[in-house]
Amino acid sequence: MTVRNLTSIEAYGLMQTTLKSMLIDVRTDREWQENGIVILDNQHNILLLSWKILPDMMQNPSFVEEMSIKINDYHTHLFFLCRSGIRSFEAANFVTNRGYLNCYNIVDGFLGSDYGKGWKNNNLPWQAL
Question: What are the pLDDT digits (tens) for 89-99?
Answer without folding.
Answer: 999 999 999 99
